[in-house]
User: Fold this.
Amino acid sequence: MMGAGKSAVGALLAERLGCGFVDADAEIERRARSTIAELFRREGEAAFRKRERETIESVAGDGVVVALGGGAIAQPGAREQLARTGTVVYLRARAETLWGRIGETAGRPLLQGASGNDRLRRITELLAERASCYETAAIVVDTDALGPCEVADAIVSQLRGVR
Assistant:
């Protein structure tokens, strides 16, 4: 979910594991030579999700840590593919925590036009819509009271139990 710390934690986790790191959103932007907000505006969400799926397919299973966009795992077939090619981790946070972390919504297409309580309400709705997908992760870390280093350490500890 946006604001959970996927990019920051993913980079730290990759460092701890001695492997590469791919931020799927950054990779989409690099390939498209456009921001995600621009892609949503120009092509719509369906086209963005297609790009997202292609990016995930190209990097999944490459022995790297991949930070996915918040809606990626909720797309048809994504959960199953990700589970086959690696260990899925959910960085769980309450809507209020996410709301406090995301700052301005300019780069957040699903929050465009929302401010204050409307933004919190939209984050709460997205969490509810995606909860069943997120909760299928092999590892779940509650991040509300943790910094990125602590979250990465918690994941490493849990990975030892999964492998």
About this structure: The domain at 6-156 is CATH 3.40.50.300 (Rossmann fold). The two ends are 25 Å apart (CA to CA). The first strand starts at residue 20 and ends at 23. The chain has a mean pLDDT of 87.
